[in-house]
Amino acid sequence: MERMEHGGTVFDVLQERGFIEQVTDETELRELLKGKVTCYIGFDPTASSFHVGNLVPIMALAHMQRHGHRPITLVGGGTGLVGDPSGKDQMRQILTYEEIARNGEAQKKQFAHFLDFSGGRALLLNNADWLTKLNYIDFLRDIGVHFSVNRMLAAESVKIRLETGLSFIEFNYQLLQAYDFWHLFKHYECLIQMGGSDQWGNIVAGTDLIRRLEGKQAYGITFPLIMTADGKKMGKTEKGAVWLDSERTSPYDYYQFWINTDDRDVKRFLALFTFLPMGEVGLYGSLEGAEIRRAKEILAFEATKIVHGQEEAEKAKEASRALFSGSGEDENVPTVEMDRDIFEKGIAAFKLFERTGLCSSGSEARRLIEQGGAYINNQRVERFDRLVAMKEFSENNRMFLRAGKKKYLSIKIFEKSA
Q1: pLDDT by residue (tens digit) across 300-335?
Q2: Residue 416 has what pLDDT?
Q3: Which of 57, 295, 357, 400 can bridge 328 by disulfide, Cβ–Cβ 3.0-4.6 Å?
Q4: Are 387 and 303 contained in the same domain?
Q5: Closest Cα to residue 337, out of 413, 275, 280?
Q6: Among 291, 325, 359, which residue terminates a domain?
């Protein structure tokens, strides 16, 4: 089990790795974490898979468990029926009970890549189990009485939404999340809630409710919003979200996302998204120039191994190296099959890049070629209307396309059966 030297705790690990933005009482929290503690994070069940943007809280729970603490992953089956306004400029889509239950089951499988649920070492709970059974009048009398509307209106997440419109159902959300914290405190001795920076108001409301109802202290930790060096929200690409589900983002594409990390982000991402010791993170993060490629390979391999396993990470690494060397012959390279007739007649280069999906439109493909960013078999395409024919294929009927530095594809001839 990973431990900090010189009597440090998981708090020191999280802080050194860049996970901590705010805490409710650092001195007491540091003391508390010298023993064994139960902590929790709530997860929105509105999608059937997590994406890269969800990794910070999941990795934080994994670090907690690796230091002997008990994490609770709370699927928001009940709160998902209401919708959290935090960090949103419009009302979230309200899902049905069936959709939320289905998404929650799919998310359980992904948690298992990061956490060990055996022997009660981690718990997976669904707040629908208690929130859907609440009596409204009792809830107002027992819980609502402790909340100040003035204070709730002062919360940043509420103030932002008041400008565009905040429904009453969403305004109730803070009470429900605070109730969750109290319920977990009462029934599971949970003393810490963690979450994104937009959850600060909700977390503090929970610690306040526990103090009022139980006369005891609970704690909160929030994580910073992770932005890339070029100012983009972590996990967002031109194609959309980068999913942990291999059916939505293949292990190869997942690996490619990490290996294409901006040089300025490599050290920070090694600290946040791998379990490598910080000594190694510092070493790899200090590499410069051509050597930074090695650090990116380590980041991509370690991040892919956590989610997809050692074997898939090895395959993705070999495929990526084949592409980087320009051979494009590795069997793990993304491949599309196309009919031989297309190339016997010949197809314009820009149409080929559009048809294979490397470009979203013919006009985008033309721009790519005119700007010198399109390659066939590692040779730059000089004219957008150049005909691409059978002679471009290798002996094993493969052709290798590249769009810019990051998007690769292999074309294989589809042979019709006689």
Answers
A1: 999 999 999 999 999 999 888 776 655 545 555 677
A2: 61
A3: 400
A4: no
A5: 413
A6: 325
Q: What are phi and psi of 196, to 5 degrees?
A: -65, 165
Domain assignment of residue 43, yes or no? yes
363 within a domain of the structure (yes/no): yes
Asked whether residue 228 is assigned to any structural domain, the reply reads no
Give CA separation, 322 vs 43, 244, 308, 350, in Å. 38, 24, 20, 24
**Which residues 6+ apart lie within 8 Å of 379 measured at CB?**
none
Report how many domains make up the chain: 3
**Encoded amino acid at 299, one letter:** L
Confidence (pLDDT) at 401:
87
265, amino acid identity: D
Q: Yes or no: say if 262 and 228 are a contact pair by the CB < 8 Å rule.
A: yes
Q: Kindly state whether residues 78 and 196 are assigned to the same domain.
A: yes
Q: pLDDT digit string (tens) for 204-233?
A: 999 999 999 999 999 999 999 999 988 888
- pLDDT, tens digit (0-9, with 9 covering 90-100), for 230-272: 888 887 665 678 999 999 999 988 998 999 899 999 999 999 9
Could you tell me if 186 and 92 lie in one domain? yes
Distance CA 95, CA 81 (A): 6
Question: Which CATH number covers residue 19?
Answer: 3.40.50.620
Domain range for 97? 10-223
Look at residues 223, 254, 281 and tell me which one is the last residue of a structural domain. 223
CATH number of domain containing 293: 1.10.240.10
